[in-house]
Each structure stands twice: as C-alpha cells, then as structure tokens.
C-alpha cells in the first residue's frame, strides 16, 4: 500500500514524492565522499585492461580511505577480489558478465526502451544533457554506458548529475540482480551504487518483475524471443539474425 493517502491533495503528494526521491542536503565532506564513490564505481565497471588491472592497489587504498558506509563495504569486497585476479581472468569474466548477457548489459537505455526507436531518442536526450553541462564524451562510447553516466554524475553533482541514474533506477536494480544470480563480484559495485539512490517503490518492484520475465520492449523484426539464449537470458547484444528472404518476383509474361 502506498504510504501517501489518496485523500491528500495531488500537489502535496507530488511534493512529498519529489522530496523522497531528491538527494538530501549534503555536507561538503559527504559530497566529496559521494563523488569519490561514483568515480570508483565508474572505474570498476570499465573494461579491465592492463592499466586498470595494475591500479588495483591504488583502488584498494582509495576505498579504504572512504568514510565508513555500506558503499565502502561493498567496494572493499570488490577490490579484494579484483586485486587477486590475473588479467586474463578479469577480462574473461568482464566479457561474460557484460558483453554476453543482456540482463547485465551496462547500456542503461536498453532496459527502459529495448530495441525500439525510443531508445535512439533517449540516447540523443542524454547526450544533449551532457553537452548542456559543458561535458563531451571521450572514447567513442555511447552516452548511456554506465561508466559514462557515473562519471557525469560525479562531475555534475547530486542534483542534475545523478538524474540519469535515478531515471534508470530499475535498470540498475536488474543489473544488480543478474550479477547476484551469476555470483559475480561485480554485484558489489552495483550494490555500492544503489546505496546512493532512493529505495525502490512498489511500482519499481512490479516493473522489475515484469521486465525480468518479459524483457524490454522490442520493435526489430526477426529477433529471436527473449530467453532463447541460455537460462532466461535476453538475446546477446550484436546477435546476427539473417534477414528473411525476399519473395520471388513473379512474371506475368507478354500481354
């Protein structure tokens, strides 16, 4: 049952909901720690190349320097695992979790819009948000890639900077659940991030259950249905589906 009585005026209910979802006023120290958590999550979710793997000790010491919090505990669990792995093992695990499983894909607009035309508009809107804040994406990555969204949130601050994270709260929750089901240490990174966001509402929980069961919206003709690739997985990104053959041209002969 909703904690807000339907007898309350609509304007009051709207303001209360906004207050619940809006980040509370933070001290400078809390803002600094929050920014650092976002940047650490962004780094942790990037592809583990040799440079990132070599920085494991620095990541660990930075996490340990954070104030005591659930986010710090989750990130510490991740860095303990990360620093104990060989580079090839890190690479294999990352590809398996984020490139071969759509339920834990790091492209956030996919969960909200699936393979539909609306996703293209969402990507454009997100890119425009970045540019309006004076920030340009480097490296050729899509604007909805979670490490990119996290870096923007760290740069722009809790209000406008974290708005895309709050908008895609359900997708983030689904990624976390998929990583937890796979027993991936990356679940700790998502758990750390989720501690910074408002808890899911009843509507969020219902939408998550539907999304997990049915998959995101889809408009592309010829795609295999969700669940055809392993145990309940969505079709992997980049899956090639050959086009349907064109019907034969019929000749009516000379008239």
TrEMBL record:
InterPro entries: DMSO/NO3_reduct_chaperone, NO3_reductase_chaperone_NarJ, TorD-like_sf. The keyword Flavoprotein does not apply. Transmembrane segments: none annotated. Keywords: Nitrate assimilation. Residues 214-255 are annotated as: Disordered. SUPFAM superfamilies: TorD-like (SSF89155). The keyword Ribonucleoprotein does not apply. Residues 239-248 have a biased composition (Pro residues). PANTHER family: NITRATE REDUCTASE MOLYBDENUM COFACTOR ASSEMBLY CHAPERONE, NITRATE REDUCTASE MOLYBDENUM COFACTOR ASSEMBLY CHAPERONE NARJ. This is Nitrate reductase molybdenum cofactor assembly chaperone. It comes from Streptomyces fuscus. The gene is narJ.
């Amino acid at each position: 049952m909703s904690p807000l009585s339907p007898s309350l005026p609509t304007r009051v209910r709207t303001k209360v909901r906004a207050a619940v979802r809006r980040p509370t006023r933070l001290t400078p120290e809390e803002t600094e720690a929050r920014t650092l958590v976002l940047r650490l999550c962004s780094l942790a979710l990037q592809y583990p190349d040799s440079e990132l793997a070599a920085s494991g000790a620095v990541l660990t010491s930075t996490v340990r320097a954070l104030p005591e919090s659930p986010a710090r505990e989750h990130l510490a669990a991740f860095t303990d695992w990360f620093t104990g792995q060989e580079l090839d093992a890190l690479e294999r695990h990352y590809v398996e979790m984020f490139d071969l499983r759509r339920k834990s894909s790091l492209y956030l607009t996919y969960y909200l819009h699936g393979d539909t035309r609306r996703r293209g508009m969402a990507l454009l809107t997100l890119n425009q948000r970045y540019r309006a804040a004076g920030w340009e994406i480097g490296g050729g990555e899509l604007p909805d890639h979670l490490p990119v969204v996290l870096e923007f949130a760290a740069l722009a601050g809790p209000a406008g900077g974290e708005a895309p994270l709050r908008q895609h709260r359900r997708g983030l929750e689904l990624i976390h659940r998929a990583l937890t089901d796979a027993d991936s240490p990356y679940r700790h990174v998502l758990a750390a991030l989720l501690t910074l966001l408002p808890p899911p509402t009843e509507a969020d929980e219902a939408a998550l259950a539907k999304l997990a069961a049915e998959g995101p919206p889809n408009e592309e003709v010829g795609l295999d249905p969700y669940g055809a690739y392993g145990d309940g997985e969505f079709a992997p990104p980049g899956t090639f589906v050959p086009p349907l053959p064109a019907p034969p041209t019929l000749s009516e002969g000379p008239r």
